[in-house]
Design a protein that fits this description.
13 helices, three-stranded antiparallel beta sheet, 2 domains
């Protein structure tokens, strides 16, 4: 989906697009253009904006206009949608943007479980001769057939912004190469990680967390679908209500509690599927005393902290936030909590450059610190911060604008 407010089509183009704009969710009060309907100029304009904000990849759902016009027409590729996607790939290539294309759409939109898809898009594209050549598995559906994002949210803009920010930074702190979002509401939230990561050493390679936590048995029980009341072995069951049953499962909650504790004590962990190699059980990790673990960066005052350590140089990158979870309808989102914040270092001997980036004011505080140095950030604050500590001077703007 392409926000009208960002690409600003002219009046003639907007009239052409208006019948198909998606406005169930808006950006700056305006709807969104489906990639299927976008002109070449709109596509180029959009990809230029994304690249300027540091975006390098887009997840693409194989459907048009959030409907049942999907790429997979029960075993045949949809020629119109295929052509639209190939046109988008060509437009994105000069800007270095790649695509993660999901081959299968949401199950309830596909021809395998939706009569409308079969009637409106599958059958009209088949000649009588093609109907006769269908395989038995295709005939079963054609002839006899009966995703970190905040969508449709009642939450305020600042809360939605925090969800985007957390999704981006916590993904990076978990060693992901990037983060995919459902919507593109806050461009500067993408641009800042790109600018900060560009300031890291060129060969920056995060070390693997030393602490391992075994989640194997809890994870396997969580995925045993037969344990849930809505499961049926011989007929389709409602996907979304079934997913909500799984989300309340105690095994999933135990795994999430371990992740939350790693943020609370500022100790990175990796989850494993079996015991061995010194891994801890979920219960052992829950009882672990944080003071028994050496932490190169510590947040004092109640802030959560996640960090990466470089394997090749004395460089650390950390994300600090203070949150509590509140309900917004069916969504549970993090909101700010005011707390004191001091950052204490426990690094190998040497002198270091520290850069504290305030993600809310967009300011950068640079300082030189000893290995056991401290940064008194604020007596009380709700802001989110990124800390870069390195022995080499980094090239960071002293003001990372809000865009």
């Amino acid at each position: 989906m392409i926000p009208v407010a960002m690409v600003r089509p002219d009046a003639k183009e907007l009239r052409r697009l208006s019948p198909h704009l998606w406005d169930a969710q808006t950006t700056d009060g305006l709807g969104h253009i489906d990639l299927f309907d976008a002109s070449d100029e709109i596509l180029r304009r959009w990809f230029r904006i994304l690249a300027g904000h540091g975006v390098t990849a887009i997840r693409l759902f194989p459907r048009a206009r959030v409907g049942t016009n999907v790429l997979d027409l029960c075993g045949r590729p949809n020629p119109e949608l295929k052509a639209a996607f190939e046109r988008a790939f060509r437009a994105a290539r000069p800007y270095g943007i790649r695509f993660l294309l999901q081959i299968i759409p949401e199950p309830n939109l596909s021809c395998y479980s939706n009569d409308e898809s079969v009637k409106n898009y599958v059958l009209p594209g088949l000649s009588p001769a093609e109907m006769g050549r269908l395989t038995p598995s295709q005939k079963r559906f054609i002839v006899f057939n009966g995703e970190w994002g905040v969508l449709y949210s009642a939450a305020a803009e600042d809360v939605r912004r925090l969800a985007h920010r957390d999704g981006l930074w916590l993904s990076l702190m978990a060693h992901s190469p990037g983060s995919m979002q459902w919507t593109y509401e806050f461009p500067e939230e993408y641009r800042r990680p790109a600018a900060i990561i560009a300031a890291l050493p060129k060969d920056f390679s995060p070390e693997r967390p030393k602490l391992a936590v075994d989640i194997g048995e809890a994870y396997r029980q969580f995925h045993d679908n037969t344990r849930y009341p809505l499961y049926s072995p011989d007929k389709l069951f409602p996907a979304v209500p079934f997913l909500r049953q799984k989300q309340t499962d105690a095994n999933l909650q135990r795994i999430f509690a371990a992740y939350r504790r790693s943020l609370d004590i500022g100790v990175p962990v990796r989850f494993t599927m079996s015991r061995g190699g010194g891994s801890l059980s979920l219960e052992e990790f829950a009882a672990l005393e944080a003071a028994t673990i050496r932490r190169p960066i510590r947040a004092t005052g109640g802030y959560q902290l996640a960090y990466l350590a470089d394997t090749r140089s004395r460089t650390w990158l950390a994300y600090l936030r203070s949150r509590k979870v509140e309900a917004f309808g069916r969504q549970f989102l993090g909101v700010r909590v005011e707390k004191p914040l001091r950052i204490d270092l426990d690094l190998p001997p040497g002198q270091y450059h520290a850069y504290l980036i305030d993600l809310d004011s967009a300011g950068v505080r640079a300082s030189k610190l000893a290995a056991q140095g401290s940064i008194d950030v604020a007596a009380r604050t709700t802001h989110d911060y990124v800390l870069l500590v390195t022995q080499q001077r980094a090239h960071l703007s002293q003001k990372m604008g809000r865009g």
